[in-house]
Structure formats: C-alpha cells, structure tokens
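Notebook entry, structure prediction.
Reason for the run: the old model in the group folder had no record of what sequence produced it. Starting over properly, with the input documented here first.
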Amino acid sequence: MRIFFPLVPSSFTSPISTPGQPYPALAVGGMPTFGGGLDNGQNSGGCWPCTFFADNVKWSKGRHSLAFGTEIRFEDEKDAFATNIGTYNFGAGGTSLPGSASSGQLGFGFASFFLGTPIGVTQTAPTPPRLTKTGYRALYVQDDIQVNKKFNLNLGLRWDVSLPSWSSAGYYSNFDPTVPNPGAGNLPGSIVYAGSSGAGGCISAGGSSTCKPKLANTYYNNWEPRLGFAYRLNDKTTVRGGAGITSIRGGASTLMGPEVAASFLAGYQAQQSLTSDGFSIPSQIPGATWDAGIPPVGAAPAHTLQAVNGQSLAWMRPQDGKTGYTQEWTLTVERQLPGRIAVEGSYVGSASVHVGANLLNPNQLDSKYLAQYGPLLDELVTSPAAIAAGIQIPYPTFVSDFGSGATVAQALRPFPQYQYISPNTQNEGHIRYNALQLRAQKYFSNGLSFLVSYTYSQTIADATDQFSTFGSAPQDAANPKAERRILGGTSFGNTYPRYLTAATTYELPIGPGKRYLPVHGVAGQIVGGWQVSFVGAYQAGTVLPIFAASQQPLFNGPERPNLVPGVSERIPYSGKFNPYTDTYINAAAFSDPGRFALGNAPPTLPGARGFPHYNENISAIKNFRVAEKATVQFRAE
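New structure, fully documented this time:
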C-alpha cells in the first residue's frame, strides 16, 4: 500500500520543509524529481477586470444583406507567483572520478543523493502580484449577395489588432541581446526592465530601463478578407466553396496562459543559488548535512544590467507582437441521390503562420563545437585540458557565476553569462493541413437511416499550438527545418489522420402497420417496435515520436537517432500482435549518433505509426407504448 501526502503533514518537522506546504524538490540526475519545490502561491486570477464591448448593424437592400460591427476588449489579469521553497540538485559529479578524461560521463546522481552531496541548492523569496494588461480591437463588414436564384456570394473583410502584454508599473524584465553587460566584460546581452523600473535611467543613457511600457511592438496591418459562395448546378447538385484569413491571438498578446503570466520575472524575484564541487555540501548551509536548512533569502537585487548573470531569463522579442493568422480554403460538392440519400465530398486546406512554437534557442551552443572539442566540452574551463586547448574564460567573474557549471560548453555559448534564455512568446511556427472529407447520409425513410463519414488528412508542422513553447527546445536551433513533423488529422495535428465513422438505425419491418406480421393486440406489442442500431469508429494510428539515448552538451532539446538507410522502422507480424512476445519497432532501423553528433531522424517516425483504434457498438431497442404520452424502452447493447 502506498500513502501519498501532497503537503507536508503537521506531524512532520524538518529544517527544509514547512507543514501545510508542498515538499521541497529533490532533483536527482537521471531520475524523476521528487517533491514539488514550489509553494501554493501560483494563481492566475483571470480578468481583473475585463471589459468587452461589441455591436453590429445589419441592413438589407435588394439582393444585398450587409452587416457592420466592432469588438473592443480591455483585458487585465492579476497574477500571483509561486515561490521556490527549496530545490536540491544531485548530479553525477560527487560519485565521478575527478581528473578523469571521462569524468563528465561517470558517476550516478542517485549515489550522490545517498552521499548527501548536492551540486546546488536554489530558493526564491515571495514576489508581489502583477497586474498585466492587454487588449483587442476589431472592425468588420460583410455582404451576403444573392446574385441570382442559383448563385449566392459572401464577401467580408475584418481588421483587428491584438495589444502585447504590458504592466503600467513596468513589472516586466526581459533579455536584450544588444545591450552590453557591464558584469560580463561588456559582452552583448543584458537584462532590461520595462518602463522606468530599472536602475540608472534609460538604456540610451547607460541605465537598464526600456523607458516604454511594452516590450513587444504592436502591429496594425492585420487585414482579413473572406470569400464564400454557393452555386446550384441543378435541383440535385450544389457546389460550395470559400477562402479566408483568420487571426490567431498568441505570442506577446497571450493572456491567461503560462507564457506570459508566470514569466519575465527575473530580477524581481529574490533568489539565492548555493553551489558546491559535488563532493561536499554548499558551504553556506549552516550544518554538517545537506538537510540542515537554507539561509534566508535576501532582498531582490538592484535592477542593474548584470543583476541575473549566471541565471536563466525570458525573452520577449519586439516581433513577438505580430499576430499569427490562418489561411483557410474549402471546396464542397453536394449531391442528392434517390432514396433520400445525400452525399458530399470536400477538400479542406489551411496554412497557419506566426504560430506559437519552440524553434528558437538563442543560447544554444553552436553544433560545430561537437566535432571540434568533443569530450572537452564537459570539462571545467579552468581544467588543464581546457587551458591547453586555448579555451578562454569569457569574462572575469565567469567561474564564480557558474561554479561547477563553468564548463567549456558554457564558456562557448553565444551569451556565456546566462543559462537558458527562454523565448516564451516566440511565434515562428508554421502548420499546413490538407484533407479529403467524404460524407453520405440517408434521412429516415422505409425504416432506415445512416450517416457515414471519412477523412483522409495530413498535417505538417513545426509547431502544434500556442502552448508548445513550453515543450522541449529543438535538437538544433540552427536547423529549424529538421523540426517539421507529420502529425494527426486536424489543423493542430491532435487527432487521427484517417478516420472513418458509420452510424445507422434500422427499424425492423415487423409488427402493426409493417410488412411482416402486421398483428395487433398483445402479439403486436411483442413483435413490433424493434430497432437495431450500429455505431462504428475506425481510426488510423497516431504518429510516434523518436528519441535517442545520448544527449549532447549543446544545451539543446532531446537528441534523436540516425535512421539506417534501407531498414524498415517496423517489424512485420502476422495475425494478432502480442505485446509480450512480438516487437513492433525495429531497433535495427536506428543508430545512436553519440554525445558529440546530431541524429538525422525527424521528430516523428516517417515509416511507422501507432496501432489503429477500432470501436464498434451494436444495440437492440424495443419500444413499448403504454399510453398516448408514455413509452417504455428496452435496450440491449
């Protein structure tokens, strides 16, 4: 039996935990993290307030039906932030072999945990709530025109603008890749602060304030034309079609989502990071063991350009205020057949651009260093091997900023003064969707009705939705084309690419008023009123992602393997698949590129999918009419 307490019980006392709060986080290398590490303070408060105004006017004259309208939104959100109550990191260094050429590949994090030698401990102080503002403005006009009895035309135009997120108090920090960092030898790349919330005045005067409330630009040139038509070829055939552009809110204008609500706080959150060499506890811990508690967090640092050197921070680019959009087009042919049967075939396509993605990783190490330096990338920049290779310490306080993380790989990063630079509001994604949709429907007659539909589709994307920025980084940010993947059967790729559904109901022709056994009375009640129904859904398998075991020291996303040419990714099998004895994916189709090379496999397997899914339901229904307004139904499924 397992007993799980999400919060520290009042009966448990420890210097590293507080009753009623979540447990601190124990991040052990190579294993899942134990404990939450964050308190219960995180809360996106929703509208605070939100004001909406919408109005429209309709006017009909002759063959025209015109509509004009506007929509105005003032959207504010008040967010409270979680506090890191303690995160203890246990790496492999404490059980590795110091001085070994392979020290970066030796050791075991869980063994270091048993020894009680964390490589680092972090904690943050409580942060005041933040009121974030954004908004939306739109105007539209539409004209539905009856050209003649056979032809209808729909014309429309919409203009809208989404305002980037901002705070009137300037309560945002941001990474600026162009501003010299005085704490890093004036290397480019500093933290800056929205409005006048920085120190020393505006950036142009040597300070850290942007002196403008918004970090991203506002784009007003968002025109969205729409066209639709319906043409009746004859009494039984109609052709319909349309095309249009629709905006997608996201990027810097995202509200009530984690991309903005819980980010851009570096410099506002007081944080302390305690580090060690991995063979002993951090010297600042007041005790002989790692669980003796953490010293209190001091005040937040002054809002200078070098305030968060050695840490991670978020980046909202000026172009992240650009609104994404989807171009959609469709063509449908409808035909009425004898027997009250209607059939239709449609082609549906769309292309989305400036969609939320995770294609950028501005502080990734250039992949050329994998072949150039190999295992040297794991060594400390002060190691004899690094010095012999001519690796320079990038700025005077680099070693003290990063401690045991002051490796050659860190020193060679584009911005070595920072860890991960998170472009949360990036909008570089693309999605392309094409589908053939077929449908046949028989309206109820002669006791029979049915509906059958089939979709054959494909989605190719390097992004899936606006929240994908919180997925993993790309394998190599310098090669975004390699992140394109074939996905499922909707424009966001989250369903099955082939989908067949069928539903039918048949009323048996027996009983009173029917063709067979038209008896009345008790016999009629027994043999009449029977229906048989069937519902079936048949779905092709979903795409399968692929990862490799090795991970390069590039500070990049998950590594992928190499594909072996000419080898099938699936192992053929006959009959029913037995998961205990049969193998589905062919391991021989892949090879591990190792830690110092990049694999060539795409994010999803090109030649293999998951298992299809079939679902069938059959039911028998009997209706007993006991009174004019009362019926009793018997159902077996």
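Summary: The chain has seven helices and 27 strands.
The old model has been moved to the deprecated folder.
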